[in-house]
Amino acid sequence: MQPYKCFILDDYQTVAEKMADWSQLPDSISVHTLHSPVSPDQLTGLLNEANILVVMRERTTITRQLLSQLPSLKLIVTSGMRNAAIDIAAATELGITVCGTESSSVPPAELAWGLLLALARQICSESSALTTNGPWQSSLGMTLQGKKIGIIGLGKTWKIIARYALAFGMEVYAWSSNLTEEQAEQQGVTFVASKEKILQLADVITLHLVSSPRSHGIISYSDLQQIKKTALLINTSRAELIAEGALIKALENGDIAGAAIDVFEQEPLPAGSAYRHTRNLLATPHLGYVSDTNYHTYFGQAIENIRGWLDGKPVRCLAN
Question: Which residues are catalytic?
Fold first, then answer.
């Protein structure tokens, strides 16, 4: 069999080779891992002889320019069945097969709920104060039971969040431009007819929309000014949902009580970013899908995709 070089990109946790049995691949395939973000110029040189890429969704941008400079590349496997960082059209034109994997919505939903609990009860700041001999009890937490949570989005994740909220005794409201009253009722939540209304009534707002031209900037600074000053905002979906700079401005001006986010316009986050030191902001480094179960799925199915492609029967294809 022809020898192939397979590169796994952005294995930040150095776990990719432990999450699946790579020995299932033929000996003719050599597997190489990159553990840190690499600049576009460096990528071209590092991947010049790559035949197969295994990429994590939206960590490294795979542009038309990069693809055109990788003459040996034949297959890309991404985690998940959607990856806005890959130029699918360019890959198709260049004869490069692009495949995806399944991805569970449970890990990101659990993270979103964990962030909400941590923010509502000021867990991180209180723990930090305790371990650094700071003040004993300096904050007053928010009880979630009886509060109103507004879920903006339509899909698998928002349904899980709705179940969590109901279990905590919250009043649950939902809105998206495509959501219907019947769909909301099926999940046991109250349908809200407009974005403005859900922003105004909720004590907690959580965003669960996919990234698209229509959803970019769907939450503007003026929208944040409509939220209660005592309210909390959670965004574990996409940074682009909130207009750039709007959240920092709202927190600095006291327009909302606090926010927790897991996604950023630039990742990894630059050292000097305002997100690193803004008051009343709880931020995590895009951990939503980063979990044992998802990683087993991602890399296990990546191997399945590679084997299928070798046999001339690629599976879970996104292109070509």
Answer: 238, 267, 286
Phi/psi of residue 49, nearest 5 degrees: -105, 10
What is the C-alpha separation between 207 and 184, in angstroms, rounded?
A: 16
* Residues paired with 29 in a beta bridge: 4
H helices of 132-203, in order, are: 156-167, 181-186, 195-201
Query: Is the N-terminal amide bond of 268 cis, ω within 30° of 0?
Result: yes
Cβ count near 292 (within 10 Å)? 10
DSSP state of 147: -
Long-range contacts of 125-133 (CB under 8 A, 24+ apart): none
Residue pLDDT, tens place only, 141-175: 999 999 999 999 978 999 999 999 999 999 999 99
Q: What is the rounded CA–CA span in Å between residue 264 and residue 236?
A: 10
Concatenating the DSSP letter of every residue in 32-74 gives: EE--S---HHHHHHHTTT-SEEEE-TTTS-B-HHHHHT-TT--
* pTM (two decimals): 0.93
Q: How far apart are CA 15 and CA 101, in angstroms?
A: 17
Q: What share of the chain is helix, strand, coil (3-state, %, to 5)?
A: 35, 20, 50
